[in-house]
User: Which sequence fits this backbone?
């Protein structure tokens, strides 16, 4: 069979530009796909933030008509590891990674999606590379299937939902900019008279297939109560046939990049280690970490992540207040919502054994994964979650909410602990349980080794995507 040609696109891709887990996936999945023989290319906007750090080769340019005006888009190129990356440049729409207001952001990504469709043609003309599949990620690229339909370009599309919370709800005026008539869209209109649209929903309707980043999250989002789910019209419309034009929403668990997350080769950590010498390795890393933070030698729990409501820091803060008599350390790393940051600081001021670093430091994150005993992941929901996988590879046992991808990657009692989501009392109990496990050295050793041995590389999941791509083309 000839190689499948897949163009993968989204808002961010590591190492060039990363704000969250989507960036990690956009950086690591294409690499794994290329390794198993998929002809994958990646395209993202060429933000100023990227230009300030990298200088890529210009390969050409093309024009798009947006809002009745002709706009020029330049194509820049870089081959990263084994994956061809393309960066689309346009000063008016693609310079800022985060346009200030909502309407501008809607316009910005509508523009990017239109540019991607034109870019597909450009790749055909200039490189004789004709995409079989366009793989869109989250709402930022969810208008691509609709635009492809409109211009009658017959390319299959898959839309992966990394987080259903972000849907791109905003003014219907975006359609005028794209020169799309209301009638060409499905159930996207909201309000009476209709004034808003839901970009992610439109993607769900028009994409050939829809996927999400874990099997459990796929089940959870299909069940969200319709009253509270702005996407419900799309779910209802698809109730009998699943999401997307064919079949059901499919959940494929993400992997992590084993070249980056490998305690045996990690240059950021004090003592490199693997499953054969983790006891010494982790002890040295822990000593180093605790010393640098001014903490005493005690069982050490950590939290690493974005400070967003989803991540459940309030649950952790409540649990900390309930366990203040225990002899432990808690290290918190991350930034985000100022209100959440303030509440974390208040707790850190109250207890000397709680340390909070309200910044995002990749380097410190590596040290924390390597030097902690347990990682707490109290997410209210978690489409996949990558930090439990990273922590486990570094021999740090996860204590996580029983939801989404956390549930799919952690075996309760075997390589980590799961507790009922949203319940600080349950988290408190799980922390006590973890301390008891650590005292039972034989059991603890067994769990750490099991966590470190669990395979979270992309190998398995990349194969599932390849299979899905293959099925999609078979059907067209
Ligand atoms: C989003 C989700 C997270 C997932 C990541 C990558 O950030 O919240 O659970 O791991 O996307 O798919």
Assistant:
């Amino acid at each position: 069979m000839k190689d499948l040609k897949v163009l993968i696109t989204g808002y961010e891709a590591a190492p060039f530009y990363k704000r969250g887990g989507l960036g990690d996936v956009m950086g690591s999945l294409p690499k794994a796909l290329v390794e198993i023989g998929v002809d994958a290319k990646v395209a993202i906007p060429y933000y100023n933030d990227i230009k300030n750090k990298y200088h890529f080769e210009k390969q050409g340019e093309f024009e798009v008509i947006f809002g009745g005006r002709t706009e020029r888009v330049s194509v820049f190129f870089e081959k990263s590891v084994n994956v061809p990356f393309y960066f689309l440049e346009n000063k008016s729409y693609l310079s800022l990674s985060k346009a200030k207001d909502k309407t501008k952001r809607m316009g910005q990504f509508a523009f990017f999606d239109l540019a991607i469709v034109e870019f597909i043609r450009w790749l055909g003309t200039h490189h004789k590379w004709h995409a079989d599949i366009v793989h869109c990620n989250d709402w930022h690229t969810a208008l691509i299937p609709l635009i492809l339909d409109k211009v009658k370009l017959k390319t299959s599309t898959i839309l992966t939902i990394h987080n259903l919370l972000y849907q791109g709800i905003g003014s219907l005026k975006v359609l005028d900019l794209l020169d799309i008539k209301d009638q060409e869209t499905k159930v996207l209109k909201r309000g009476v008279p209709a004034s808003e649209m839901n970009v992610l929903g439109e993607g769900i309707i028009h994409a050939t297939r829809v996927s999400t980043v874990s099997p459990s999250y796929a089940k959870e989002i299909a069940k969200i109560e319709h009253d509270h789910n702005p996407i419900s019209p799309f779910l209802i419309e698809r109730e009998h046939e699943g999401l997307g034009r064919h079949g059901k929403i499919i959940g494929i668990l993400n992997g992590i990049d084993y070249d980056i997350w490998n305690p045996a080769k990690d240059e950021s950590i004090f003592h490199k280690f693997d499953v054969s010498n983790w006891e010494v390795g982790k002890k040295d890393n822990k000593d180093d970490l605790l010393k640098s933070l001014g903490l005493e030698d005690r069982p050490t729990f950590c939290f690493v992540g974005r400070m967003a409501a989803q991540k459940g820091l309030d649950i952790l803060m409540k649990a900390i207040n309930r366990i203040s008599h225990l002899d432990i350390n808690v290290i918190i790393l991350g930034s985000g919502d100022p209100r959440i940051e303030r509440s974390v600081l208040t707790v850190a001021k109250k207890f000397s054994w709680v340390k909070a670093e309200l910044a995002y430091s990749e380097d410190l994150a590596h040290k924390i994964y390597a030097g902690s005993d347990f990682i707490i992941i109290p997410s209210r929901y978690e489409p996949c979650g990558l930090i439990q996988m990273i922590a486990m590879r570094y021999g740090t046992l996860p204590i996580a909410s029983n939801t989404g991808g956390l549930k799919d990657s952690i075996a309760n009692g075997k390589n980590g602990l799961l507790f009922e989501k949203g319940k600080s009392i349950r988290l408190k109990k799980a922390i006590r349980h973890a301390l008891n496990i650590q005292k039972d050295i034989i059991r603890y050793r067994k769990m750490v080794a099991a966590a470190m041995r669990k395979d979270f590389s992309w190998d398995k999941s990349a194969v599932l995507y390849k299979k899905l791509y293959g099925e999609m083309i078979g059907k067209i």
